[in-house]
Protein 1
Amino acid sequence: MSTWRSPRERLFSRIESRDAVCGIIGLGYVGLPLAIELARSGYRVLGFDISEAVVETVNSGVSHIMDVASPVLAEFVGSGRIEATADLSRLADCDAISICVPTPLNKTREPDLSYVVAAAHAVHFTLRPGQLIILESTTYPGTTREILLTAFEEGGSTVGEDFFLCFSPERVDPGNPQWHTRNTPKVLGGITPACAEVGMALYERVFDRMVLVESAEAAELTKVYENTFRMINIALANEIAQACDVLGVDVWGVIEAAATKPFGFMKFTPGPGLGGHCIPLDPHYLSWKMRTLSFRTRMIDLAGEINSEMPAFVVRKVADELNERRKSVKGSRVLLLGIAYKRDIDDVRESPALEIIRLLQEKGAEVAYHDPFCLTIADDGHTPIRGLPMHSVDLTESELRSADVVIVVTDHSTVDYGLVAANARLIVDSRGIMREHGESIVGLTRRSGQAPRMRLVG
Ligand SMILES: NC(=O)c1ccc[n+]([C@@H]2O[C@H](COP(=O)([O-])OP(=O)(O)OC[C@H]3O[C@@H](n4cnc5c(N)ncnc54)[C@H](O)[C@@H]3O)[C@@H](O)[C@H]2O)c1
């Protein structure tokens, strides 16, 4: 018979002694770095993934996530601190389970919670007294209570007594050299105060700083608010860029000047559009939820519209510049520099580059790309561009010279922009990285060196 008085006390004790086994469902961009931090903090980690390929690579000590170095993973795998498995029945062996599965949108841009539901079912199936479950996937306020709690309580267990349930959003910013999983403050909210207490006990031993909020819903909303803030401010920068184009003013100069204000301004930059698994998608989780409550999130809708028009804006710039040179898009050879959704990462999910390629192909251009981080665009059956799989071409003088136009879509830091400037016939730079490189460059707004063209009205 157990000497512990309650599942909660037993769990606390196992967390304190580092005997707790930590399960992670989903070993992707979020789950694998979390596995490393839990292992670094002294816990044994069981990572679960439905992809046999992911399980195999992790168990062989090879990282498929850029922010996790293979030697670090290999050391933890070698010492038995991290193990991956596709056998979800082993969830029963875990004291704490963090759920890090995808939360995409479906074809009609509504939340697709099928991965969360599948993970919740797997946990429910093996749920036993004294388990802590923390949902990390970004989602709308109410998910933890409405989906996970409802499923877990079906068997008659009581939250806060038999098992503990929290939401703690992941804020990882892939490729960020300063802020990573451990040193980024971690928000957590529990379904009950006891849940929050247990969740904090574990994560306080893993993260440098914890931020406790009043409920799971507050934690869920914190995450979507952060990403909505970013998405709306990027939309504003994109709108200012388009306004600058009409005014004939260089948008980068304006942004840099505004950013010299030491208070009350935060710098956001325009670009070819939003990408990734977070900023373009997460706000739709909030707007969908609010629609079910008869509340319209107008700023999200408008910002989404502005951002999603940016790939077409870039293609219009390309068409205008080719037109100036008596060329049509049809038959032109276009080289994209960068297809990842942002600098120095290998993620093309939702990347605006894909829409730019699609639009150019639709207009009859012959499109190639160079991206040192993304060597292939695979044919996943969803990407609506022709000629897949596509492979990155080498960035050579002859490749640059043979292009009618080079479009900078992603400003990777390892690209030789001097080589690009010296050899490309025409450059459309959607990121402002080529500004230092001379006159043949067209930015999002106007050609560098061109005088402002203010129109007087009235
Ligand atoms: N990528 C980011 O930068 C980032 C940042 C913050 C938050 N998030 C959020 O974190 C969540 C996870 O995103 P990600 O980028 O890590 O996704 P990902 O696609 O990189 O990884 C998810 C993993 O989960 C696995 N999986 C799916 N369903 C499963 C199941 N039922 N059981 C076991 N494994 C399963 C997949 O095979 C995959 O390996 C999402 O909600 C995302 O919005 C992502």
Protein 2
Amino acid sequence: MSKAPLKQFDTLIQMMSAFPDEQSAIDHFTAIRWKRGAFCPLCGAARVYHFSDKRTHKCGDCRKRFSIKVGTIFEDSKVELRKWMMAIWLITSHKKGIASTQLAKDIGVTQKTAWFMLHRLRHAAQAKSFSRPLIGEIEADETFIGGKEKNKHRWQRTGGKQGGAGKVPVLGVLERGGELRTGTTPNLAARTVQHVIRDHVAPGAALMTDEHGAFVGLGRDYHHHRVNHSAGEYVRQFCIHTNGIESVWALFKRQIIGTHHWLSPKHLNRYLGEMTWRFNARESGEGERGNALLAQTAGRLTYKALIA
Ligand SMILES: [Zn+2]
């Protein structure tokens, strides 16, 4: 494998000229996936032979043949990698994401294919594990995400007595100047909420929340400041507020309304993962973002698993 520097691109047009054909896209992905050297995706062995077609490889240990796509979200995809690259560009650079109907038109695939592609990219974007506790000033907040009944397809409507029905509770923890983490939660009971916060936030951190009862008791482990929204107390002191995490929810809700119109609670964590990934990559350049998402495409998401 040659060790040419990784291609960077700051505009869509630069990316398109960086990948004039399918082989150039495959070479680029190969350079990213095997950054630390070639390995077999089936058994992990480092002894790998490369065929002259520049697309087929063979493991020296398990003797199996494979392409660079095996064991990634691209495995079994008939869509060429160049189109995947374009989809990655669009999903990483558009602040409110992209709808499958739009992606289908933009890259010339069916809507069903575009939908599946976007979910596989969300699957890649979803944080698989968290390596460190958040520190410093932390904003934690709860919200409900759920579409209005009238925006759903008729067969998806549950009918009658709505109110809170169909809405999914979501928790977010934002490290000021650092990382955002979000996810759905089965409920907003104190036990559940505090377990999540203690899981993600280092003891001793300054924790900003609203007055929701679920946060009561966190003062034992954190410098806990509660902002009383109902009393109109949005910013008590200049640093005691939850405006950061609240603007994250506002952005996410605009994405749902403006781009997707409605989304299934079943897939909500994937959409949250996509938004969170973009938020955490906000300081990176466009090309860097695309390469960063490409670097975490290991792990498959089959259609069967997606619709299950
Ligand atoms: Zn092998």
Protein 3
Amino acid sequence: MRSSRLGRTGRAAALLALPVALALGAPPVLAGPSTQAGQVTPDRLPSTAQDGVALMRIVVPDQAAVDRLNDMGVDLVEYKKPVAGGLEVHAVLSPQESQQLRALGIDVRDPIADQRDYAAGQAERRAAIAENAVDAAETDTLTPLRAESFTSIDKQRFLSVEVKSSAGDAETVLTATWDAGRGTAPDSGGTATLARFTDAGQYMYHRFDEPLAVDARPTKVTITSSRGGSVTVPVTEWLGEPRKSPNPHYVSDFVDHYMDPTEVTDRITSLARQFPRIAQVIDLPYQTNGYRRAAQAQFGTAPASTLYVTSKAYGSEGGNDVSVALTQPAAAGAPLTVSVAGKAVTVNLATDAAGAVSSTAAQVVAALNAEPAAAALLTAATYRGNAGTGAVAAAPATRLSDNLKAPESVSRKPFQMKALRIGKKRDGSKVGVFLYCQEHAREWVTPLVCVETAERLLRNYARDPKTRKLVDDLDIFILPTVNPDGAHYSFYDYNMQRKNMTNYCAASAADPASRNSWGVDLNRNFSVGSLFDGYSGASTSCTSGTFAGPAELSEPEARNEVWLTERYPNIKFAMNTHSYGGYFMWPPGAYKADGRQLLPRADFGTENYFWSASDHILEAVKSWRGTAIWPGRTGPVPDVLYSAAGNSADEHWYNRGIIGWDFEVGADLYDQATKQFQPVGFQPPFAEGHEEAMEFASGQIGILEVARAFAGDRDRPDSKLRVTARTDTSTTFTFTEDEPANIYYTLDGSRPTLNSPKLTSAGMREGAQQLTVDRTTTVRWFAVDIAGNIENNYRPDGRHDNYNREQVRVGGRH
Ligand SMILES: [Zn+2]
């Protein structure tokens, strides 16, 4: 056992005792080591000197602690993995932020580059727990949720198991044993202990922390509980073998470098010009604020004697031409005055009787803001809300700067966002699919996914019949970069930028060294299940990585998404592509932390549809290089990742009924030599980024195939009633369907309608609800699939009785 695990309880207690309002995202004033003694220290250095900002591994005890980090404004990335003693999350932290978190008792570990082996410690911990559990009181019941085997890159085979115990407390230990293939002994494959998975303080189920590498495909797995429960289930195959494209003329692989938003937008514009019959560009109505910033300069060293100025005009619009000088008059007893000549501002500092400067930072700030000619050019402020009582030092004339480093080819004007619309018939009559990428600036692989998908559709249209069907039968909207300003900033100024560039910070966090922390998290700025509605996973702090903005839909980038889905109501599917970790997710995407109150779950039939669609979509991802997205990273967002208040997929699903999926590209890579999974990060070497773009473009094509099947679905579902248990006094039954569908039923003899009870799921990641009757009952029911086809062409609002009907007998001979 590593010593780092000792004292975890103490750390957890410290973490939970933190005040919720603590805004870690706000730049700490002079926290941490200074570059020079007494000098003002930037918490996030500009990209030219990004020393120390790193993707750090943090281990917290539970989901509540993740939510707490989220609330504190820690820049958590879209990655979460259960590990011994809690959850591993990754955060972008400066050394000062790491230090601050550690001071609060939070277990901030190493940068992700050197992942450590925790398996041994894990096994040891579980053995200790198992020993404590021998006096378990009651036998528990085990409900198998999922038991799956799959291959991933290099044909390595894995086993993934999820089981729920009726006890589920911390003392309950579940162990899985499996065979080594058909005809082998039940325990010949191996044995491993499952981890207890909790979220927001609630027991969810047990599972392997990550899929276990196995040599052969097991046929069955037996799970036994320290409380006496036991269950044996067949192991099913997760994701089939990759489908190879049958068409040797199919072309792919159109991206050869990471592209900034200007390049990406030029590319889709040029594609629309090349393929005018099947593609067009849509200019989105809301221009972004633009890749531009006010110009600034800061004077001083110690906080009390430091002030900074910010130009009224953007740097590119004259702000960069403003200069400020702080001059010390030769005379003693001189007054503080401000003079302005053109764009040159001169502050003549006051001197005392001995001729030394006596003007404080606060006085200089007040004088600058009070002089109309100066105030027309700039505003002045003391350092991060400091009272500014220290005397300032003289300084030569200093040009203000917007500090932006992108080449001239990147416009400093508001950005015109463009979507590419692809389809033979673009009149709204075809089912629409909205593919959008790069809501988060630093996720550089994601726009490549969107561009690659567009190119494959357009360049294969004439040569591949399957592509032609997609383009002929669908109306496809591709928005390759939702966050162009932030992404330009990520490319040229600060590569870890996540948000857009719009600064909502007051003077206390608006100094030049705070500039890498400004902006709104676009995937927290939407209007459903938002921070403003009380949901978890977004921040009110303007410097937080998950800042929700001043109001719902405050940002033009977010409003453009809403506009597109409202303007084209034929859109029924959407894919929000992010990075990294390898996830496939769907709504709900947020909960209120108190009681883990989720946005409404999709109904049973829709949830089943999501799972069945995921097979097709994830097999498409796998077809490129064999990457299997894990079963444990597939499902509703909060079940597999975390709550994300105000995200766009929820916006599209709950407001407009658009099936809103999320990808996280960049699945962990399994290292055969160390037998460890390795996270890939946001900007892997292009060789890896390229593979991720290719495989998830294949996934997007898979989505289009799912959408086309939906559009053409005229098959009515078939359902059956199945008795699952009988006693002398009751009978339990459920229904089965030949495709994902909802079942409406009655038990009281009445005609079933769309207002009748609807079959639900037995629980998260479980199968169908089981219904129990205590006397012989005639069940009446019908099934409806996701496309609205009704079993046997029954009309729930009509008068005919062509629904299903079956008597469920209780007692007597059976
Ligand atoms: Zn993201």
